[in-house]
Amino acid sequence: MPLTPSWRPSRRSVLAGAAGAAGAVLLSGCDGGPSGGDAAIPLERRMRESAVRDSGRLLERYDATAAAHPALAERIAPLRASVAAHAAALSPAAPGSPSAAASPPPSGGTGAAAPATGAGGPVPAKPADALAALADAERTLSESRTIDLAAAPGELARLLASVAACGAVHAYLLTSNPGATP
Fold first, then answer.
1. Structural contact between residues 37 and 92, judged by C-beta atoms closer than 8 angstroms
2. Fewer C-beta within 10 Å: the chain N or C terminus?
3. What φ, ψ does residue 71 adopt, rounded to 5°?
């Protein structure tokens, strides 16, 4: 039985969140002076670093899910690769520099077992629940990036919009076709 995507935020809630994020950015920059060391780092760089950290946590979640449910590894591998590509694209580092986010998923047969917990906590025992938890992580990150658009400079805003849309598609793909879940 296909699930209907009831997770879509309404246009009003997205706009309200974006307006709130923009207001917070405006209020935090009112005094013009450094406040805690972040003021010297440009906004775009801070936003990119935060986005890369968020993608890294999502990659950890994918890796933990694949380790806990090897039968799901092949199904989620393309989505994980896409998240790694997003992290690389969002990285403030120079193009061509090595990125930990773009590393391949850990192999299951090299001795040490991967942990059964990811950035979002323990991986559920049932494969379908593990996919749902992964979809929730994708959805949450997608919504967060959509809200961040209000404060992002032009090119970064376009990139965040694309990555947020891709995350929403990942969430849908992870919860669609439950018959394919082992």
1. no
2. N
3. -65, -20
